[in-house]
Amino acid sequence: MKTIKHFLFTNFETLFPLILLSSLSLFILMVRLKITHSFFFLFLVWNLFLAFIPFVISFLLKQQTKGSKYGLFLGFCTWLLFLPNAPYIVTDLIHLRHSGPTQIWLDALMITLFALSGLLCYFLSMRHMEIVLVKHFSKKPIHFLLIAIHFLTGFGIYLGRFLRFNSWDILQEPSGIFSKIFHIICFPHLHKGAWLVTIIFGMSLWFLYRISIKQAWLFPKKIKIL
Length: 226
Hints:
Layout (H helix, E strand, L loop, with lengths): L1 H9 L1 H25 L6 H21 L5 H14 L2 H4 L15 H33 L2 H23 L7 H4 L1 H13 L5 H21 L14
Helix pairs in contact: 2-6, 3-4, 3-6, 7-10
């Protein structure tokens, strides 16, 4: 019990806004379920759970004081694989087309709160991983790696939203996902939508992340990369 209290106290400034926003999202969802008696948007709970996975992985890596480079590499790869799930919730706004005229504003508020929770998971997770990588590697390469990760995340969002792949498919259907990625990279003129989504989301995530790390309430302990 003392360990849990110490954990919550030392990480309060990081965890509180995330827990508060996620709880509010779930509360609005329950209100909608009560009003409409429809379970259509329950998938948002699963998507939020997936958004927390990279946050938890990066958080645990950040707490480690000692660890092997192999363990760090494995943790980083797993984190990167699940990372697109966090900002992916933004694309769930597409489901507003299924909302009726009487509850569309409630649905818009609900999905937006879930999307903000996912984005917060993303920003916090990116910051945790930034801190972890700076401990082990040179700062300048890490700066460019972090920029690349934003665009890889944008590409992952495209794979999930438009091609309907998920993070588990790299284990369940590796040949299908890698062949599609290979085709997109080798024949960019045939996949302009994929590159457009990747660039737009990549630039947006990079810009928003740079803004977020300047917020003292979100990142009270700063580490300067460049």
